[in-house]
Design a protein that fits this description.
Helix 2 packs parallel to helix 7 (about 110-120) and helix 6 (about 90-105) crosses helix 7 (about 110-120). It is built from nine helices and three strands, in the order ααβαααββαααα. It has helices at about 1-5, 10-30, 35-45, 50, 55-70, 90-105, 110-120, 125-155, 160-190, and strands at about 35, 70-75, 85-90. With about 210 residues, the protein is mainly alpha-helical. The two termini are about 40 Å apart. The protein has a single domain (about 1-210), classed as Winged helix-like DNA-binding domain superfamily/Winged helix DNA-binding domain (Arc Repressor Mutant, subunit A), CATH 1.10.10.10. It is globular and about 70 Å long.
Length: about 210
Amino acid sequence: MGKLAIETRGLSGGGRVSATKLLVLGIVHLSGGAHGYQVRSELQSWGAESWAKIKPGSIYHALKKAAADGLLTEHAEPGNSGPERVLYRATVRGRDEMVELVRDGLRRTHDADMLNASIAMLPMLTRTDAIAQVNERVARLEAELVVQAKWREHPNRDAPEHVRDQAELWAGHARTELEWAKSLSKRLSEGAYTMADDPGSWRTVPDHLKIRF
């Protein structure tokens, strides 16, 4: 159970950074180019501050960091009777990174921030790829629940009772998430959502942000 306890703690910070990075890259890419305030406004309209715990300051930091890492380009534009504005555009590396972050967030367990961000950007993947990543999540959750069941059969008597209750809580969440992941895989297999390889996807519509996923 020690391994499970470690996996369920301490991931939210790193996951939040990755989630912000993914959403910022996604918005810039979908818009074909955006200023910082436009990225912030779009994410606010999605309610990302609540479900991904994204703060406005972290959005600007993520934009600057992505540009420094070669994932975005920066283009200075004159402001209207004010300071210059920076227009960000996704590079090929940035698009590849965005897709890989979506894939990672779908299959990685115990990271709610990344899962939420990946679901928001789910149509960045082809249908086959998305199904494969969700099925990987299903397999991981099933394996972890097997380990947890064995621990319940042979519990560590030295562990405090309240720690055992925490394990039961985790198992309950995992079972619920497992059913959700199986349902998502089934719906994707049946044609839910417009995925990257479907007609009308973000690859074919000029004004990407008018797509309603």
